[in-house]
Specification:
InterPro entries: AKR, AKR5G, Aldo/ket_reductase_CS, NAD(P)_OxRdtase_dom_sf, NADP_OxRdtase_dom
Distance between the termini: 42 Å
Strand order of the largest sheet: 3-4-5-6-7-8-9-10
Keywords: NADP, Oxidoreductase
CATH superfamily: NADP-dependent oxidoreductase domain
Protein name: Aldo/keto reductase
Shape: globular
Organism: Clostridium tanneri
Family: Belongs to the aldo/keto reductase family.
Length: about 280
């Protein structure tokens, strides 16, 4: 993990940058276009989006206007709950490709565990075999969801993107993913801004001469977790990349580990699985 271009290698040999640029709740149009262009200018090469975010078109414009070759960018999107199922997933994939102005994705994920997981996964396997996507995976899957999916999967997931931060570490899930060569990835690594209120992290920021955000993002990487912070502020976008010139001690890594409370800022995947319309309520 020497610089922003450093990568983990997924279980199929594909290289995925450890640090990515998240785009959740970044408005489509000029806002997301300029933010992604700035991220790419600074050096990010991993861009994460989803059909739910409704900003794929703006990201597609940013990729084109950046002047960076498509093969240099690791592009991720996700199939939304209402699009799950074999045929619907294939259609949703084509829609995302069109909006993003590309003919392939580097990673395509099931956004939340649903009753239709296995049908959806068959569609992802088809896309993978056809070379339309370089890697496939899931989001928000607990160990039980992964075990159920993998019972019938021909191809195992390569990535599991979950809520992960100092207040929600999920050690058992992390161990399961490591044992099964599934790369864990963190969404909401900065606890939706709440990390700024944590005394220990403020103390460590002073100790290392870094910001609280940089301490947490570095902690993610040292734990072997891919992380995708987001910002629309150029200075913050750059700040989030300045995490390759220092290393947290084992003692400080353990101190952060002790912050774990099992606290979610997002939805519990079990509740989403049991109530597919939960996002419409």
């Amino acid at each position: 993990m020497e610089n922003i271009n450093s990568c983990t290698t997924l279980n199929n040999g594909v290289k995925m940058p450890w640090l990515g640029f998240g785009t959740y709740k970044i408005e489509d149009g000029s806002t997301v276009t300029e933010s992604v262009k700035e991220a790419l200018r600074i050096g990010y090469r991993h861009i994460d989006t989803a059909s739910l975010y409704n900003n794929e078109e703006g990201i597609g414009i940013a990729l084109k206007e950046s002047g960076i070759e498509r093969k240099e960018i690791f592009l991720v999107s996700k199939v939304w709950n209402s699009d799950q199922g074999y045929e619907k997933t294939l259609n949703a994939f084509e829609t995302s490709l069109k909006k993003l102005q590309t003919d392939y994705l580097d990673l395509y994920l099931i956004h939340w565990p649903q009753l239709l997981n296995k049908e959806t996964w068959r569609a992802l396997e088809k896309l993978y075999k056809e070379g339309r996507v370089r890697a496939i995976g899931v989001c928000n899957f607990k160990e039980s969801h992964l075990r159920d999916l993998m019972e019938d999967a021909e191809i195992p997931p390569m990535v599991n993107q979950v809520e992960f931060h100092p207040y929600l570490i999920q050690n058992d899930l992390l161990d399961f993913c490591k044992d099964n060569n599934i790369q864990l990835e963190a969404w909401s690594p900065l606890m939706r801004g709440n990390i700024l209120k944590v005394d220990l992290l403020q103390e460590l920021a002073k100790k290392y001469g870094k910001t609280v955000s940089q301490i947490v993002l570095r902690w993610d990487l040292q734990k072997g977790i891919v992380t995708i912070p987001k910002s629309t502020t150029p200075a913050r976008i750059k700040e989030n990349t300045d995490i390759f010139d220092f290393e947290l001690s084992e003692e400080d890594m353990d101190k952060i580990q002790q912050l774990d409370q099992g606290l979610r800022f997002g939805k519990d995947p079990d509740n989403v699985y049991a109530n597919p319309d939960i996002f419409n309520k």
